[in-house]
Write a structure and sequence with these properties.
The chain is mainly α. The protein contains 13 helices and six strands. The protein has a four-stranded mixed sheet with strand order 1-2-6-3. Strands 4-5 form a two-stranded antiparallel ribbon. The mean pLDDT is about 85. InterPro entries: Cyt_P450 (IPR001128), Cyt_P450_E_grp-I (IPR002401), Cyt_P450_sf (IPR036396), Cytochrome_P450_fam2 (IPR050182).
Length: about 400
């Protein structure tokens, strides 16, 4: 456990599984830190909310997404269609070198588009290109400016008015995305059918109307716009990066990893149909490869920061109220106390002695962090991560 100051903020980094499990599951550590990117007046989604409003939105989002098929067979069918479309696009290149990321981004993003907007966009659709370009810009800027979290509010507000600053650039691009989402919401309001929910926006609009007479309602326009923005930012990027690493790793290890996955595909799936999520129960090596990729290349090494809502003590460490708490997931996944030769990619670590079955998933495998916050992305991520590599291989 390391504590230091960045600007005016106290920061605590949790570098082992024990401290992350103990601290992040405490009630006072569910608080989201004020974030100048996600915390905007016109867009307050679950990544920027706290207290009852966060709890209400999280519960409602889970309920609606489940009803729409998130993590279920209906979503699996859509993912399979999207993956097949992606595979056909790559096949059309006839073996020419390709930057697979340029194809993965729209494919994965389309899974989110279908849930929130009710339809997918073809790869060459101007709406598809607009969203992918803006989201890519935001993620690139955030990657180079992750210290933005620690800048005091008064300074971030000042920097937002200055040209050529990262804050100004991020807010400008993010603003364009939010404006597009707002236009989609307006269109949904004008075409709403009370008898059916076409997508997440429909369901949220109806909830807003249902609670419109409550001035303290947790379901307001800013929450709808913010939640949709959060789905795109968190869902698309995490899955895309994980699948990208899987494909690169298979290409790098054709005689070991790729060959073993191909053997399981031939034995369980064959060549006449697409993979199904339920196939994972009969494909221990493929699932072990996915788990190992989660560990070996943690896509969100420092996860999403929390903020201590009250003074807290862990062993001999004092964590004052207002402290930013960051879980170092990479450190857990590279901890030699839990993993033999952690820097080596080795799916066998998750299999029984003869490789015929998966062992129980270790508690120390935490690619989506720990606690209630992770549940919105786990199921969709695992389905995407299984279907994409198996079809490509």
């Amino acid at each position: 456990v390391i504590r230091f100051k960045v600007g005016v903020k106290d920061v605590v980094i949790l570098n082992d599984f024990e401290s992350i499990k103990e601290i992040l599951t405490r009630k006072e550590m569910l608080h989201r830190t004020e974030n100048l990117i996600f915390d905007r007046p016109e867009a307050k989604g679950i990544l920027a909310l706290n207290g009852d409003v966060w709890q209400d939105n999280r519960r409602f989002c889970l309920h609606v997404l489940r009803d729409l098929g998130f993590g279920k067979t209906s979503m699996e069918e859509h993912i399979k269609e999207e993956v097949e479309y992606l595979a056909d696009k790559v096949s059309d290149l006839r073996g020419s070198p390709v930057d697979i990321k340029a194809y993965l981004i729209p494919s994965i993003s389309n899974n989110i588009t279908a849930l929130v907007f009710g339809s997918r966009y073809p790869f060459d659709d101007h709406r598809r290109r607009f969203l992918d370009q803006r989201l890519g810009q935001v993620l690139k800027l955030l990657g180079s400016g992750n210290l933005l979290t620690f800048i005091p509010g008064w300074l971030s507000a000042l920097l937002a008015f200055l040209p050529f600053t990262t804050i100004k650039a991020v807010q400008s691009v993010f603003g364009e995305v939010l404006e597009y989402i707002s236009e989609q919401v307006k269109d949904h309001e004008e075409t709403l059918d009370e008898s059916v929910n076409r997508d997440f926006i429909d369901a949220f609009v109806k909830k807003m109307r249902e609670t419109k007479n409550n001035p303290d309602s947790s379901y307001q326009m800013k929450n709808l716009i913010g939640n949709v923005g959060n789905f795109f930012g968190a869902g698309s990027n995490t899955v895309q990066m994980t699948i990208h690493w899987h494909l690169l790793n298979c290409a790098d290890k054709p005689d070991t990893v790729q060959r073993s996955i191909q053997k399981e595909i031939d034995d369980v799936i064959g060549r006449e149909r697409q993979p199904r999520w339920e196939d994972n129960k009969k494909m221990p090596y493929t699932m072990a490869t996915i788990w190992e990729m989660y560990r070996w290349r943690t896509v969100a090494p420092l996860s999403i920061p929390r903020e201590a809502a009250a003074d807290s003590i862990y062993k001999d460490y004092f964590i004052p109220k207002g402290t930013i708490v960051i879980p170092n997931l990479w450190a857990v996944h590279m901890d030699s106390r839990h993993w033999k030769d952690p820097e080596q990619f080795n799916p066998q670590r998750f299999l029984n002695n003869d490789g015929s079955a998966l062992d129980l998933k270790p508690d120390q495998l935490i690619p989506f962090s720990i606690g209630a916050s992770k549940k919105l992305i786990v199921d969709g991520s695992q389905m995407n991560t299984t279907c994409n590599p198996t079809l490509f291989v």
